[in-house]
UniProtKB/TrEMBL annotation:
The gene is tgt. Zn(2+) binds at residues 304, 306, 309, 335. InterPro entries: ArchSynthase1/Queuine_TRR (IPR050076), TGT (IPR004803), TGT-like_sf (IPR036511), tRNA_ribo_trans-like (IPR002616). GO terms for molecular function: metal ion binding; tRNA-guanosine(34) queuine transglycosylase activity. The keyword Zinc applies. The active site is at 93 (proton acceptor), 266 (nucleophile). It comes from the Bacteria. This is Queuine tRNA-ribosyltransferase. Its EC number is 2.4.2.29. Homodimer. Within each dimer, one monomer is responsible for RNA recognition and catalysis, while the other monomer binds to the replacement base PreQ1. Keywords: Glycosyltransferase, Metal-binding, Queuosine biosynthesis, Transferase, tRNA processing, Zinc. Its cofactor is Zn(2+).
Amino acid sequence: MTSPFTLHSQASDCAARRGEVRTLHGTVQTPVFMPVGTQATVKGVTPENLKELGAQIILGNTYHLYIRPGHELIRSFGGLHKFMNWDQPILTDSGGFQIFSLKDLTKITEEGAAFKSHLDGSKLFLSPEDAVAVQEALGSDIMMCLDTCIPYPATREEAIASTDLTGRWAKRSRAAHKERGQLLFGIIQGGMYPDLRAKAVEELVEVGFDGYALGGLSVGEPAELMMEITEEIAALMPADYPRYLMGVGTPENLVEAVYRGIDMFDCVMPTRNARNGMLFTSSGRLVIKNARHQDDQRPVDEECDCYTCRHYSRAYLRHLFMAREILSSQLNTIHNLHYYVGLMARIRKAIEEDRFAQFRQEFYAKRTVE
Ligand SMILES: CC1(C)O[C@H]2[C@@H](O1)[C@@]1(COC(C)(C)O1)O[C@@H]2CNc1nc2cc3nc(N)[nH]c(=O)c3cc2[nH]1
Ligand SMILES: [Zn+2]
């Protein structure tokens, strides 16, 4: 198994590392934040906007695209890249999380997941092999195994049963995907039980994947617990393969998880919060509808050089938000994604110069509650 990951530099005073992941559609510099584009679009922005703000790789979702418009239609257009006019890397999540978020609409058996469409209630089924086949039809650069995301909290018995099933599904996913172009990542479950997670890492490495993801986190558990598990298990994940923490997180989460050795991240926060008028800045969060921004001529963040900050005032952005204008979501999303992608670029530079621990201190020193 040749790894798609190359380590460029390892921080001398923490687990942070600088590397790159080679994929069919290009090489991704890590640590990296991946904007979420669940339904073949990163909501509110064009691929050109994404390139201008520095996005290297985006996320799609197997469950959503399987349900609508269907993976066969997307295959007929030459795959997801052509269908959505994005020619850089795409990672598709397997749908494990979405299916299990449907709660009572799902029935899990050894064979796979039977569930009802959240759109029209129609009965659907995905086996681990089906999830691989759908992602092969989508042509994503990085595919995720179908897994069972354990809710928080869960008993040890529930975690054992669910993690063992995920392990058997991972073996089947690997067997279903042999060709080497598209990468396949394994997902580590185990709930909040480090020994179960350690066993899961061993079993997945035994099967052999192109990268390893920490699943079953950012599911409502306390941030301290998420970091504890991340710290303990990242250290057990193969150092010469990509490490992906699914569904994370806030800017602070990203800094803390990089410090503990994570390379890849995705989260709906920058895009979702943008649509809700919550903007990220170098000094903290800003709620644009707050009356104090009504006649503020300044940009969202004086240190930001994104399209939104170069052309628009807080007053104008507040006006758009209060008027429920479509442009509000577009401009706020461009800024928030530029902040997240820019934060990762600054993190990569700090690791290259072996000053990440100092960067981390300065990062917190600047954050005042807006
Ligand atoms: C569903 C939606 C939109 O994604 C966010 C957000 O809601 C929400 C809902 O509640 C909070 C916690 C606040 O964040 O959780 C999502 C972010 N956490 C997360 N994404 C994940 C994706 C995953 N995919 C797979 N295949 N397996 C996993 O174990 C897995 C775990 C994950 N954890
Ligand atoms: Zn900006």
